[in-house]
Amino acid sequence: MRQLHIILRRLLLLGALCALALIGYAYLRHRPQDLPWTDLDLAQPVGMFTGRKLAALTGDANGCRALLDRAGVSYVAMKPKGSGQCRHSDAVRLRQEDGVVSLSPASVAPSCPVAAALKLWEWQVVQPAAEQILGKPVETIQHLGSYSCRRIYGRAQGSFSEHATADAIDISGFILEGGKRISVARDWRGEGKEAIFLRAVRDGACRLFSTTLSPDYNAAHHDHLHLDQAERGKLGGRLCR
Predict the structure, then answer these.
(1) What does the angle CA 51 – CA 97 – CA 208 come to, to the nearest 5 degrees?
(2) Measuring CA to CA, which residue among 186, 114, 101, 185 is closest to residue 145?
(3) Strand runs (DSSP E) across the chain, as ranges?
(4) What is the structure's pLDDT at 23?
(5) Residue 191: helix, strand or coil by DSSP?
(6) Cβ 105 vs Cβ 172: under 8 Å
(7) How buried is residue 183: exposed, middle or buried, by Cβ count under 10 Å (0-12/13-18/19+)?
(8) What does the alpha-carbon distance between residue 114 and residue 230 come to, in Å, rounded to a whole number?
(9) How far is residue 168's CA from residue 155's CA, in Å, rounded to a whole number?
(10) CA 112, CA 128: separation in Å to the nearest integer?
C-alpha cells in the first residue's frame, strides 16, 4: 500500500509539472521573444532571449541588415574597413530622418548588431524612460564614437577592444525635445530626475548589449555608457555595471 501511495504522489507531481509546462508554453506562444528558437523581431518588446539573439547577429551581416529592413530602419551599409584585429565588414550608418531620434555625430557607423540593439534600446527603453521620468521625448542621442583600432583602455598589449571591430559605441548624453541636454558626465550622480533617467537607460541596455559599462564601473567611464555586442553575449555572457 505504501508503495502505491508513493507511485500516486509521483504521478500527481508529474501531472502538475506537465500542467505548468503547458501553461508556460501557452503563455510563451504569445511572447515569441521569450523563446530561444524564434526569429528576432525588433517590433516585439524585449524578451528573455532578445539580448542573445542580437549578439548572435555578429558574423551574419546579411541577416542583420534584413532584420533592420523588416523593422523599417533606414541605413547605409558601409564598405569593409581595416585589417587583422581591426577589420569589420558589417558596419552601418543609420540615416537621419525627420521624426526619428538622431545620433550625433551622425557619421558614426557601428556594426549592424550594435545598430540593431541601439534601435531597440531607443524604442523600448530610452523613449519610454524619457517620457515617464522627464516628461519629454529624446530627439538626439550623443556619443563619443564607435570604431577605433585599439586595445582595451588603449594599452600597448592585451586584448583588443570591441571598438576595434565597431562592435561598441560610447553614449555620452541625450538631447530632449526643446533642447535640454542630459549628460552622463554631469548628471550621473545625485538623486535628480536626470540621474534616475540615466540609470534607467543603463539598466535597460543591460538586457540588449553583451556589455554595458557606466560611471559605476570605473573612472574611465565617468562620461559615457559603453555598449557593446561581444560574441560571448550569444551564450548569455553579460557584463552590466
Answers:
(1) 10
(2) 114
(3) 75-77, 92-94, 102-104, 138-145, 168-176, 181-183, 211-213, 225-228, 239-240
(4) 47
(5) coil
(6) no
(7) middle
(8) 10
(9) 17
(10) 23
In a domain, 185, yes or no: yes
Range of the domain at 160: 50-240
- Secondary structure class of 169 (helix, strand, coil): strand
The number of distinct structural domains making up the chain is 1
Q: In the chain, what's the furthest Cα-to-Cα distance?
A: 78
The answer to whether the bond into 105 is cis (omega within 30° of 0) is: yes
Q: Residue 22 has what DSSP assignment?
A: H
DSSP state of 80: P
C-alpha cell read off for 61:
551581416
In this structure, which amino acid lies at residue 164?
Answer: A
Beta bridge partners of 135: none
| pLDDT averaged per 10 residues in sequence order, the chain, 241 residues | 59 57 56 88 94 95 96 96 93 86 96 98 98 98 97 89 97 97 96 97 98 97 97 90 95
Residue with cell 533617467: 197
| pLDDT given at position 33 | 86
* pTM assigned to the model: 0.88
Identify which of 53, 64, 164 has the alpha carbon closest to the alpha carbon of residue 115: 64
Residue 12 lies in a domain: no
Distance CA 129, CA 134 (A): 8
